[in-house]
Amino acid sequence: MTDQAAASISTRSPRLLVIGLDCCAPELLFDAWRDELPTLSGLMDKGVYCRMESCIPAITVPAWACMTSSRDPGQLGVYGFRNRADYSYENMTIATARAIKVPRLWNVLGDAGKHVGVIGVPQTYPVSPVNGELVSCFLTPSAKSQYTHPPQLKREIAGWIDGDLLMDVPNFRSENKAQILSDIYRMAEQHFEICKQLLRREQYDFFMTVDMGVDRIHHGFWKEMDARHPNHVPGSPFANAIHEYYHFIDRKVAELLELIDDDTAVLVVSDHGGKVMLGGFCLNEWLIQEGYLVLEEYPTTPMPVERCKVDWSRTRAWGSGGYYGRLFLNVAGREPHGIIPPEEYARVRDEITAKLEALPDHEGRPLNNRVFQPETLYHTSENVPPDLLIYFGDLDWRSVGSIGKHELYTFENDTGPDDANHAQYGIFILYDPRKPGGGRRIDDISIYDIAPTLLHLMEQPVPPEMIGKVRAL
Predict the structure, then answer these.
(1) Which terminus, N or C, of the chain has the lesser number of Cβ atoms within 10 Å?
(2) Could you tell me if 365 and 395 lie in one domain?
């Protein structure tokens, strides 16, 4: 960089491009494949990089909202995709954009007069106005929905891409691997084309996009590449699917970098990592076995607990499945048919916690479960939090909520084939031409520190409500 160029950069308002890669794993990007990915490794060589410690739970919803608001899941009142709407046994809600009641990065910057672009960031549907352009996320029901701000942008997008915009990969938990792979690439091609069109046309102060393809390909194809997976088949034609997609993403990132000025800072980040899934633990089956969950009638075929005939007058706890487990207690005066006296709540919860932490795996080895109480994780717990959050095998195993399998350990997912779980650590790569990092690997960054750090980079004040800190990079 010449002295004249450096002087020019120092007098301009900072600009920032954020490229989110949902579920991108540091073990793959930083370690296994770094030397094969010239664009991403180039950013690492010029900037700083580290692992990013996600929120608990380390799941897309609420992780991106935690990252962009610097609030924890308890403050947001969002503990996963589906959340209890109240203390009834049936009512659940999907955590869309309406669930996020606090400003996110683009709101803070837009209010400061910055021109923003937001493309595919989770929990941006239904669409809200921004000071710029917004294309909503995979929670959008279909391309027939109004998924853009301003509304006319939707018509423009129709001229930029082939066919309807693919909001997500249909049926990515299935064995139709060829179709899943085709849809992942189609979705990504459309997504990056929209980004390129907008970056060519507009002059953004802040532009953020999230690719969901990394997450979908991890869940769909991890067993094809990893011999540790219990269902691994050697010689699969899809053995290199994840590897090849990382190469594809590297090329797509390069295409975006060609469209920004030399003074634009670049952050590549994931909301959590990914890892092999070794199996599933049947949480409700265990609760039945231990006498905490009582059924009026055991199902003849596996089904969700919501469809089972539960004897609530004798049930003290039930759980839900997913990449992590959630456990709820049936508390007198709180749930409609609660039976645990409030004064017994702590004792019962501690008793269940101790039993969960002591569980072995299917071969008698320690499972190393991690069990969390929301009040120890979060500044506050809004809406209806779980009474316990559980990482089975520290996320090597998932939680299976279905009842009817007559087993505690399973190697078939109850919601369709799924090869990978989430990992607590994602990626963070920042190249700021105003302050090149020289390829330093820095200490891990918290997901909550990202928004304050980026606001500081853009010379904006950090709202006092944000719980993270500005990291010196």
Answers:
(1) N
(2) yes
| Residue 351 shares a structural domain with residue 441 | no
- Does residue 221 sit within a domain? yes
Q: What is the pLDDT of residues 417-453, one digit of tens each?
A: 899 999 999 999 999 999 999 999 999 999 999 999 9
Residue 148 lies in a domain: yes
DSSP-based three-state secondary structure for 306: helix
CA atoms within 13 A of residue 100's CA, in its CB half-sphere:
29
Query: Residue 327: in which H helix or E strand, if any?
Result: strand 325-329
DSSP state of 368: -
Residues found in the chain: 473
Mean pLDDT (whole number) for 375-379: 98
Q: Helix, strand or coil for residue 90?
A: coil
pLDDT in tens, 406-421: 999 999 877 778 999 9
Exposure string over 80-101, b if 16+ CB within 10 A, otherwise e = bbebbeeeebeeebebbbebbe
Q: Is 400 exposed, middle or buried (0-12, 13-18, 19+ CB in 10 A)?
A: buried
Whole-model pTM: value is: 0.96
Same domain, 342 and 245: no
Q: Rounded distance, CA 8 to CA 5, Å?
A: 5
Q: Look at residue 413 in the predicted model and tell me its pLDDT.
A: 79
Does residue 378 fall inside a structural domain?
yes
Question: Same structural domain for residues 290 and 219?
Answer: no
Distances (CA, A) of 21 to 81, 248, 419: 19, 12, 18
Which domain, by its residues, includes 388? 279-417
- Cβ neighbours for 185, distance < 8 A, ≥ 6 positions apart: 213, 245, 248
- Other CB atoms within a 10 A radius of the CB of residue 397 amount to 26
